[in-house]
Design a protein that fits this description.
FAD/NAD(P)-binding domain; 417 residues; alpha/beta; D-Amino Acid Oxidase, Chain A, domain 2; single chain
């Protein structure tokens, strides 16, 4: 079943009775070539690219809940390629290119909107830092425009430019940045993987990883044992727990990141905005709700809920940036459990166990990384060689100290990310 304008028109005129399920609901088989633990955006994109680009078919994605029910459906949907450090910069640039062709490749509307992203700065020092970042982005082949105060005002005149504590000096404009529909991304990749023979097995929790003589042999699940020659762990906030099933201790911590949505409003925010003097970012969804978030809750937790101090902190930052937001009613909030690394950058690597691979530690950057994460991880699993865009995401860098990717410049401490 392919989507097209003609098909949509036909179904609309005939009661929408001709649509088929997007993917099958197969029973788990006793053995697969590759098992992917985790049916979120990264796991699904990995399965898709393994099938689409490497011709591998005997693959199972095991999801303990339902497809798209984890972090891929619990985020603020921002897509950007404005990273600075070598290693991160080329990876997110690669991801942006994949985003730009994703809807055509998947034949699925993921509602990718390149509305532009503006990182505001509020001091001379911040201006210098963003100018340097912008130059790095341009050198990478991406786009960046340094705006002065009046340049920002032309785009977003409704901000509080003369705030006494944090006056707006200007901003770094990333025109190709924007948003996408989070759950549609999961559904598009799931549909594409299923069409190529991948088994998407829901309500199948992995309870053990079988390792014999340093070689992975398969997994134990709530739906029985499944054998496999290769096992890939892509479990986001649960990465540490899943790795422990194989006797591994990953250098990650899981933290809660809250996000908020207001009631639906008429279009008012055309871009994605980031406040420079506090961790606050905001955009407006296609349904009209203002979608925004800020800092993590600053303590390790697996609870998908947040605490009141961070709610107050985020609201204060929003009011500082744009006082008009105070008139909007918050409709709902949620917490996503994120796996945080000491340097704020991810891991895509083989483990010391033969046939066992890990993809985790996405911190704040998980959603925007979905296409490149799956693309690079699939390459690693299929060829046992790292993809050129992900060579820096080594698992051993925390042990050796070589190749630390501290993008935020806050030191190798979990609680500072």
């Amino acid at each position: 079943m392919r989507f097209s304008a003609l098909r949509v028109l036909k179904e609309g005129l005939t009661g929408n009775k001709g649509w088929a399920p997007h993917w099958r609901d197969p029973e788990p088989q006793p053995q697969y070539d590759i098992i992917i633990i985790g049916g979120g955006g990264h796991g699904l994109s990995t399965a898709y690219y393994l099938a689409a680009e490497h011709g591998l078919k005997n693959i199972a994605v095991l999801e303990k809940g339902y497809i798209g029910g984890g972090n891929v459906g619990r985020n603020t949907t921002i897509v950007r390629a404005n990273y600075f450090l070598q290693g991160n910069s080329e990876f997110y640039s690669h991801s942006m290119k994949l985003w730009e062709g994703l809807e055509s490749e998947l034949n699925y509307n993921v509602m990718h909107s390149q509305r532009g992203l503006i990182n505001l700065f509020h001091s001379d020092g911040q201006r210098d830092a963003f100018a340097r970042r912008g130059n790095a982005m341009i050198n990478q082949g991406d786009d960046a425009v340094l705006l002065d105060r009046e340049g920002v005002r032309k785009f977003v005149p409704y901000l509080d430019f003369d705030n006494v504590r944090f006056p707006i000096y200007g901003g770094l404009y990333h025109p190709r940045g924007g948003t996408a529909r989070h759950d549609a991304v999961a559904w598009g990749y799931a549909r594409g993987a299923d069409q190529r023979g991948v088994h998407l097995i829901q309500n199948c929790e992995v309870t053990g990883i079988d390792v014999e003589g340093g070689v992975v042999r398969g997994v134990q699940t709530t739906r029985g044992a499944i054998r496999a020659g290769k096992v890939a762990m892509v479990a986001a906030g649960r990465s540490g727990q899943v790795a422990a099933l194989a006797g591994m201790r990953l250098p990650v911590e899981s933290h809660v990141l809250q996000a908020f949505v207001t009631e639906g409003l008429k279009p008012v925010i055309d871009h994605v905005l980031s406040f420079g003097m506090g961790h606050f970012y905001i955009s407006q969804s296609d349904k009209g709700g203002l979608v925004f978030g800020g800092d993590i809750d600053m303590y390790a937790s697996y609870a998908a809920r947040g605490n009141l101090p961070i709610v107050e902190h985020v609201m204060e930052a929003g009011m500082t940036l744009m006082p008009m937001i105070g008139k909007a009613k918050v409709l709902r909030s949620w917490g996503g459990v994120m796996d945080m690394t000491p340097d704020g950058s991810p891991y895509i690597d083989k483990t010391d166990i033969d046939g066992l691979y890990v993809n985790c530690g996405w911190n704040y950057g998980g959603f925007k990384a979905v296409p490149a994460s799956g693309h690079c991880f699939a390459h690693l699993i299929a060829t046992d060689r790292p993809h050129g865009a992900a060579t820096k995401f080594r698992l051993d860098r925390m042990r050796t100290g070589i190749g630390i990717l501290d993008e935020e410049g806050t030191g190798a401490q979990h609680n500072l990310h």
